[in-house]
């Protein structure tokens, strides 16, 4: 018999997002919202994920076998690949399958029971245990961070990377001043990382920084002065708001439509204001999750060239988008600072971003601004980031992050009501806030329930009339079960008839 979770079909929701519906087991998708099928049927992982063998996972890791068995079980349960009530093979069968002693498997099952992962049911065998009640568990949906699908693997990658750096480098050289925009090895790593996005990467145009935020501030310092205006979207990444405020720059929002910033509005605003700089975050925009289609990018690139503008293309989510279109930097290379941080696809802890400047002169001006504010980067951290990029471990981690992030955005599209969800892509979902809620009331009420979310006010340039919306970050929940429960709670809160208690 086919289980309901074994067969799923893809349909398109009103947001244009693809979502997966449980079927009746015969390939028929029940009508969404029909009486016999609640919209909130349990979210199930994709069959390929569910069926991924945790036993194979044991063989793929290092360390004592009994711990590898427990860790693999834990990882698979966290990913949602083994549901509560799933019966495990007998200890004898598992020992045979893995080619190990029965005592090793018994030790592993004892440890798994202690961790609350499995429960023994006498002669029936061992089963995946129900989740522990999560009383008072705070869930953070307020920060865009890449999910960590395999914490053990991450720790191992860092250990190996750091060991390789210390073995291969000259320690005194790492501990001295480095005043340029990155040493040759770092630049080589940068070229390797940026080539898939940009095609041609020119060494003289490259600058390495400690993350995108540092890059944005350095570009603003090197390309303008107090009181200048920067053109931008009506909702923008809060770090740009902070940098602009600290440096005395005015933000001028440009009109947009469903495809993003309007090219003609950009040209008009540039002429009217005299501004030469425009900030764009064109892939999985923070916070709206919008990705500008190629045609819109081409039209904007033509405006940059015609009006002789410079764009700051902040593109941290490019690797996470489905079919990410060509960056503007590849369409109008002489007019774009392209900023590619590792923060959203590998880890913000590596504090590494690569910037491709419009020319060598722009790169030199930016490097001078960096020197004025922080003298130099962190050679040890840069060396670790370069090592991970050049030995391929960063790309392997990226593949895991991308697959987990896509599964999580898929969950958001399925679990959040179409009347609330505007878009989910990359690491976040953007939702409208229905009346009588305001985003501030929703954020406070959610906080009382242990859920942290980000209000639209956090993304508004000073002159913008505040829109009601919230951003839900999907990467920081410890696992999919926690995320599922948090998304259901937000959904229930917004759709409940109760007036926001806090406002009454
Ligand atoms: C669009 C955008 N740019 C930059 C950043 C920050 O990147 P970094 O950690 O490299 O400074 C973020 C983080 O949320 C972001 O969403």
TrEMBL record:
Residue intervals of the HTH gntR-type domain: 63-131
Keywords, in A-Z order: Aminotransferase, DNA-binding, Pyridoxal phosphate, Transcription, Transcription regulation, Transferase
Spans through the membrane: none
Alphabetized Pfam families for the sequence: Aminotran_1_2, GntR
Annotated protein name in UniProt: PLP-dependent aminotransferase family protein
InterPro entries per the UniProt record, alphabetical: Aminotransferase_I/II_large, HTH_trans_reg/aminotransferase, PyrdxlP-dep_Trfase, PyrdxlP-dep_Trfase_major, PyrdxlP-dep_Trfase_small, Tscrpt_reg_HTH_GntR, WH-like_DNA-bd_sf, WH_DNA-bd_sf
GO molecular function: transaminase activity
Residue ranges of the region described as Disordered: 1-45
Recorded family membership: In the C-terminal section; belongs to the class-I pyridoxal-phosphate-dependent aminotransferase family.
SUPFAM superfamilies cross-referenced by the UniProt entry: PLP-dependent transferases (SSF53383), Winged helix' DNA-binding domain (SSF46785)
Listed Polar residues bias regions: 11-23
Family annotation (PROSITE patterns): HTH_GNTR
Listed CDD domains: AAT_like, WHTH_GntR
The organism of origin for this protein: Stenotrophomonas cyclobalanopsidis
């Amino acid at each position: 018999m086919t289980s309901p979770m074994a067969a799923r079909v893809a349909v398109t929701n009103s947001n244009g997002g693809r979502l997966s519906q449980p079927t009746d087991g015969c390939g028929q998708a029940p009508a969404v919202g029909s009486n016999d099928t609640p919209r909130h049927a349990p979210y199930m992982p994709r069959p390929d994920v569910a069926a991924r063998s945790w036993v194979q996972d044991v063989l793929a890791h290092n360390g004592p076998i009994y711990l590898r068995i427990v860790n693999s079980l834990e990882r698979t349960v966290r990913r949602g690949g083994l549901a509560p009530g799933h019966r495990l093979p007998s200890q004898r069968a598992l020992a045979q399958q893995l080619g190990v002693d029965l005592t090793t498997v018994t030790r592993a099952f004892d440890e798994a029971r202690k961790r609350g992962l499995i429960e023994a049911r006498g002669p029936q065998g061992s089963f995946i245990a129900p989740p522990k009640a999560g009383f008072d568990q705070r869930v953070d949906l307020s920060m865009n961070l890449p999910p960590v699908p395999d914490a053990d693997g991450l720790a191992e990658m860092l250990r190996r990377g750091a060991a390789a750096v210390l073995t291969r480098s000259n320690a005194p050289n790492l501990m001295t001043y480095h005043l340029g925009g990155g040493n040759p090895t770092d630049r080589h790593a940068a070229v390797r990382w940026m080539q898939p996005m940009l095609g041609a990467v020119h060494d003289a145009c490259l600058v390495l920084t400690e993350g995108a935020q540092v890059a944005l501030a350095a570009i603003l310092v090197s390309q303008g002065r107090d009181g200048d205006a920067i053109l931008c979207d009506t909702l923008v990444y809060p770090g740009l708001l902070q940098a602009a405020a600290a440096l005395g720059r005015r933000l001028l929002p440009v009109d947009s439509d469903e495809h993003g910033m309007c090219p003609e509005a950009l040209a008009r605003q540039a002429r009217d204001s005299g501004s030469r700089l425009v900030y764009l975050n064109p892939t999985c925009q923070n916070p709206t999750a919008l990705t500008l289609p190629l045609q819109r990018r081409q039209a904007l690139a033509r405006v940059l060239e015609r009006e002789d503008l410079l764009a700051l293309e902040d593109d941290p989510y490019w690797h996470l988008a489905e079919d990410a279109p060509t960056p503007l930097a590849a369409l109008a290379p002489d007019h774009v600072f392209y900023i590619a941080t590792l923060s959203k696809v590998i880890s913000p802890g590596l504090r590494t971003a690569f910037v491709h400047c419009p020319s060598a002169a722009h790169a030199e001006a930016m490097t001078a601004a960096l020197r004025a504010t922080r003298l130099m980067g962190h050679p040890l951290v840069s060396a670790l980031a370069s090592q991970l990029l050049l030995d391929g471990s960063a790309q392997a981690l990226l593949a895991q992050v991308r697959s987990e992030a896509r599964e999580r955005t898929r969950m958001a599209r399925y679990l959040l009501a179409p009347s609330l969800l505007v878009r989910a892509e990359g690491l976040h979902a953007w939702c409208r806030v229905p009346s009588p809620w305001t985003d501030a009331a929703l954020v406070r009420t959610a906080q009382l329930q242990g859920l942290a979310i980000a209000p639209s006010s956090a993304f508004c340039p000073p002159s913008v009339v505040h829109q009601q919306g919230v951003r839900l970050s999907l990467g920081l929940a410890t696992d999919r079960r926690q995320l599922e429960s948090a998304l259901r709670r937000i959904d229930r809160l917004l759709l409940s008839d109760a007036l926001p208690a806090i406002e009454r």
